[in-house]
Predict the structure.
Amino acid sequence: MRRDSKRRPAFTRRALIVGAAQTAIFGAIAAKLYKLQVSEHGKYALLAKQNSISERLVAPERGLITDRFGAILAGNQQHWRALFLQAQAPDPQTVLANFTRLVPLSDDEKARIAQDLGDRPRYIPVLLKDYLEWPEMAAIEVNIPDLPGVIVEVGATRVYPFGPSLAHTVGYVARPNQAETAADGVLALPGMRVGRTGAEAANDDALRGEPGFDQTETNVHGEVVREVAHDSGTPGDTVTLAIDIGLQQAAVQRLCAQAGSIVMLDAATGEILAMVSNPSFDPSLFDKGVPTATWESWMADPAHPLENKAIAGLFASGSTIKPVITLAALKSGALTADTVLNCPGFFDLGDHRFWCDNHVAHGSITVTTALQVSCDVFFYQVALMTGIDRIAEMAATFGIGTDLGVDLPNASPGLMPTLAWARARGIDWAEGDTVVQGIGQGYTQVTPLALATMIARVGSGMAVGPHVARRIAGELQFGSDPTDWPALDVDDTHLAIVRQGLFEVVNTQAGTAYASRLTLPNVQMAGKTGTAQVHNNSAAEKAKNFNDLTMAWADRPNALFVAFAPYAAPRYAIAVIVEHGNFGADAAAPIARDLMTYALTHDPAGRDTPLIIPPAQQLTEVTAPPT
Amino acid sequence: MNTYSLSLHRPFRDRSFGLVRKFLRINWLFVLLVCALAGVGYAALYSAAGGAAQPYATSQLYRFLTALLLMLAIAMVDIRAIAKISWVAYALGILLLVVVMKFGHTGLGAKRWFIIAGVQIQPSELMKLFLVLALASYFHRASYERAGNPLFLIPAILAILLPVGLILKEPNLGTAVIVALIGATVMLGAGVRWWKFALLAAVIAVAAPVIYHHLHDYQRARIVTFLNPGSDPLGAGYNIIQSKIALGSGGFSGQGYLQGTQNQLNFLPEKQTDFVFTIIAEEFGFLGSIAVLALLFSIVAIALYTAIRSEHQFGRLVALGIGTNFFLYCFVNLSMVMGLIPVGGVPLPLISYGGSALTAVMLGFGVLMSIHVHRDVEFAVQEF
């Protein structure tokens, strides 16, 4: 102990110094802990949140497209798909083998899955199978213990309950292409679709909606532990079309298997109530991807099923143009209501003889009679008197040969030639070219929509523009209120003359469409038939008749009919084209009559005002008004 | 045994003192603190398993109870007997280090441990204690004057450098530095003059670049990562960043038990071992951290108190060495999880999951308690 006298105090001193140093270091640790845990807590709390919370954008539900009464024309249907997360599977090959036993996969699908599994990080799910059938899903759910990493997830498919009936108008959606996803990142979200045609394309912005998000807590492997927050996003707006699906289906059924097109408008607003383009296609095929064989069959079909003939099909108008010719002539002063022109059954210009329909001689007639019997010779002369430019100008007033501004993509303006147009194309415009314009042949090209617009404007006297979207998110769109449209810059008396002629077409025995007059009490239809030559007839054919049933189908003339009703208070306008249907009066007018009957009895335009028939018009029998 | 032998404060100068007396002389406050830390460890490991006793908490509890019995048993062993086998233990430690280099299991790129009869042995952990015993035994005989003799220090320095070199070879930089620091602290306690430590510090400062040149790539990577943790967020710096996030997100009062996202969502690899403190810090916040820090500090303080109270130099030096060992464990581990020093594979004693460090620490605590129990035995000094 003696020797301790020196080293024990030395030890104690040094031990205390060591202890002081250790205390200081503990204090420094405590201070650093305070800084980390209290002073900088906010910063690290945020980092911890970012660490564990992963946010994923969720595709919004695409807006619905409905008809004017709310029937769903384009909707979303949930479907189930199987995904596979490798990170959760200790032995992916066994899981895949088990899965294939439950849900058969094609060799193509297997190859794609194998490639995806190789390409992607283990925590990014790989699609095993889309559009699972119910038995497949049940089989997966029951066997889920044998399928670690397999996830069944819900997705949305665009469905079109009325399918081909309305395919062209509603359009279809497809997966966005690379350029689109590059331009708008939201489109890269799985499940996003882009409208490709029809109302789906025209209203794509409204239908698309705002994406939501899915906040999930994930562990370090990116595996989802739980869902923290979910926001489905803002679904796209509902787009209410002016279409009445009942009328539409009646039109589809009435046209049946015939190639052609029908457009029915609200004559006071231009709303498209029905629009048929036949043949059609199944729009739902585009959501999943059209099978190659189907696509090829569409492409090879001479009837062009994918084309919306109602807005893009270009047809010779035939005699349906005659109301416009009449109005142009009346405006120019070349024609009055009392002008009498002679029809010997033909019209000679130079050494060329233009025949009247069926080579019939109508004799000396006025314009209303010429319309009533559709005398071609009368209108040959009128066209020549009026001049092609005045005709084109009046046609444009009535929506022919001009951009109608319809809210559907790929609409064609059609063509009404002018001298300037002919010059620009190096066409040496002959008087004979003007002559055939009088009966809607030659260069004239119209769409069914343009014809419907024309007859709606003739009926209402308003410059209505055709449009299909009635409401977006409940908001009535411009044009769906009759007061949105100005009156046409056309003399009312001129319009009255034309209407009178069109009335006689349908409601007098001599009229070309008398067989297709309405059978409803107290209400009449006014219309105009057309039979448009589609084939440059040989001299021999001209000597007979150009609409002979012995001709090949593709050479037969197109049958057209335009009409509005009720005559006294026009509300509905219709244009019908039956391709190669021969006579407009036979093939097209009855369809128009039946659909007009449907429209008048169901009144889909259904404004607050009921159909009012003025007392003077309340006739028990259909007779011509006094001339 | 005479009548006043019943007094606990009776000088204890012979071996006739019964086991019961010895048992009662154990510093029970210390044992309580050790048990409290083990309890904290149990809670942390329960949380690390996502709120389950398996696979960490229960097995660690059994290890601790075993080690506790071992500690209490060693506390009963006469300190003089321990002193006698110091050099034997040292030789055994060196032998184990050599064996582990030849036959040991590789963990984290280093041969550090092997298994004997189902018990994982990490010789470098045992070596810390054995070196302390050897050095204390050596300096126990040296007077203050003798300890000032540079030549006298050479065997002691060699005794330190041998295990340090072997551990560096494993390679395990962190433990090697800790062993060297423990040895240096024991020498400081023995009375080695201050200027010699200043000289040593100067030599290290000069040699550091040379040492760095000979470091393993992973060791250099640790140092580089330490200097700039953000440079490689998913590589070596990832642990530091995630660890700091865990600490920082705990805030003042914590996210709540079993509620820490960093912990429960496995953002920290091996969190049940080296980064176990982050669990406590994240889920119990600053309050929990400070409470654990206070417990750890109490252990260090009691070790120092035991050293100062010991009436023989051997006990003083061993207690100082054991206390320093424990302190360095805490300091390195806590600094590591706070990103203050490079990651070193050093567990937080009594709390981290794992048997090897726990066993070594509890062995040391057994010796510490033996010093406490035998603090006033007649322990003759035989000078060289």
Notes: Strands of chain B lie at 105-107, 110-116, 119-121. DSSP finds 16 helices and three strands in chain B.
